[in-house]
Amino acid sequence: RSFSLEPKGRNHICVCTGTACHVRQSTVILEQLERELKIKAGETSADQEYSLERVNCLGACALGPLVTANEVYYGNMTVAKIERMLQETKSRKPEEKPVGEPA
Q: What is the pLDDT of residues 14-41, one digit of tens each?
């Protein structure tokens, strides 16, 4: 996690908007996450459950569009995959790493 003066939510979600991800529609994914979480990029939900952040590059351009949730990479993200990612994020304890398919 990056340094911040504002408290972050229990679940920290970053959406890459670098060039490779941007041309693969990462802004559409960011907008959908803003609607689902009812917060804008740079904000934390009132219940402190989620923080949403727009980042310039996550360094995995071949996986774009890329979203991270608690430092777990979700590559080739689509709007249709958002609900599953949020369910996995909510059900996983912060110290647990995902089991199964990589990003």
A: 999 999 999 999 999 999 999 999 999 9
Q: Residue 98 class from Cβ within 10 Å (0-12 exposed, 13-18 middle, 19+ buried)?
A: middle
Q: Which two tokens stand for residue 17?
A: 């908007």
User: What pLDDT, in 10s, does the model give residues 39-72?
Assistant: 999 999 999 999 999 999 999 999 999 999 999 9
**Residue positions counted in the chain:** 103
Identify any residues that bridge with 55 across adjacent strands, giving them in sequence order. Answer: 16
Q: Is 36 exposed, middle or buried (CB count within 10 Å of its CB: 0-12, 13-18, 19+)? A: middle
- Residue 12 CA to residue 77 CA, distance in Å, equals 16
**Other C-beta atoms lying within 10 Å of the C-beta of residue 96:** 10
Element spanning 35, H or E: helix 26-37
Contact 98, 88 (CB under 8 A): yes
